[in-house]
Design goal:
This protein is α/β, with parallel strands linked by helices and about 280 residues long. The chain has 10 helices and 8 strands. The protein has an 8-stranded parallel beta barrel with strand order 1-2-3-4-5-6-7-8, surrounded by 5 helices. Helix 2 packs parallel to helix 3, helix 4 packs parallel to helix 5 and helix 6 crosses helix 8. Keywords: Isomerase.
């Protein structure tokens, strides 16, 4: 599917495109971050749940002031499943119970790649139940080191848990499978049908982030990512559903750097804004 073909799809009433900005790598205050995101034209932000009361209030004050939507990241970090699940539940419960502003979605860095299926399934089951009770969509990100670290593994989880929905950050899988996934088309198409939120970073077979998607040497991998995202957008337009996209090119060391100085090879913020404008023009 090409960009022109997408434009020929008449979106049903209800289709809405929201672009979110990441605070990953931003050095200023919450207010400065929200002001900068708003100025660039973002509809919202995606951040980790702060945890502490003062930080929570500062965040929501800034979001309200600048009239932004918000999506939250949620995860556990412990290597013991019992402790991990307890931590995950605490964060997810707090996000859903907050009385400041209802999140547009919650994006989970779910489980661990070395947890068993049964251990990771506890996280899926809790997230599914919490999404139903709160009315907040809860997604599981296709992320290295987490339970959805590889395409075939994510497919197995989705087949056995039909209500599971994804945040697609397919840049990770390009790296994990050391390819542009042409040999897993059936699996990828299956995942795309269950993807509700996109992290629009561009990866390649040797890494999760190209140094600059504007550079001509990356045209092939950029086109591969656009082709995957196009399929999700086409479904959303046909169904008249909201689509959220986070621009998530990261800072050093996700951003390649020069040796010795660790100077980034490109401007992270500028790249994310470029991706937002590119995709808005393509998908609006």
């Amino acid at each position: 599917m090409s960009g022109n073909e997408l434009k020929n799809i008449k979106a049903k009433a209800g289709y809405e495109l929201l672009f979110m900005q990441t605070d990953w790598g931003f050095g200023g205050t919450r207010d400065e971050f929200c002001a900068a995101a708003k100025k660039e034209g973002y509809e919202g932000i995606e951040v980790w749940w702060p945890g502490e009361d003062k930080a929570i209030k500062e965040l929501f004050d800034a979001v309200k002031k600048h009239k932004l939507e918000i999506g939250f990241l949620c995860a556990g970090s412990q290597s013991n499943i019992t402790e991990h699940l307890t931590s995950f539940k605490k964060s997810l419960d707090a996000i859903c119970a907050n009385t400041y502003q209802k999140p547009v979605y919650i994006n989970c860095h779910s489980g661990k790649d070395y947890f068993t299926y049964e251990e990771n399934k506890q996280i899926i089951d809790y997230a599914t139940a919490k999404s139903k009770s709160s009315g907040i969509p809860v997604y599981h990100e296709t992320h290295r080191s987490r339970m959805m670290f590889a395409a075939h593994v994510a497919k197995n989880f989705a087949e056995k848990n039909p209500e599971l929905r994804f945040t697609l950050d397919i840049s990770h899988w390009c790296n994990v499978h050391e390819s542009l996934l042409s040999d897993q088309k059936q699996t990828i198409d299956f995942i795309l049908e269950k993807a509700e939120h996109i992290h629009s970073r561009v990866g390649h077979p040797e890494g999760p982030q190209v140094n600059d998607p504007r550079a001509p040497e990356w045209a092939k991998v950029v086109e591969a990512h656009l082709a995957w995202w196009d399929k999700i957008i086409a479904r959303k337009k046909k169904n008249g559903e909201r689509m959220t996209i986070l621009t998530e090119f990261g800072p050093a060391d996700y951003m390649p750097t020069l040796p010795y100085t660790r100077q980034p090879l490109a401007d992270q913020w500028a790249i994310n804004v470029y991706m937002m404008n590119l995709l808005r023009k393509r998908y609006q």
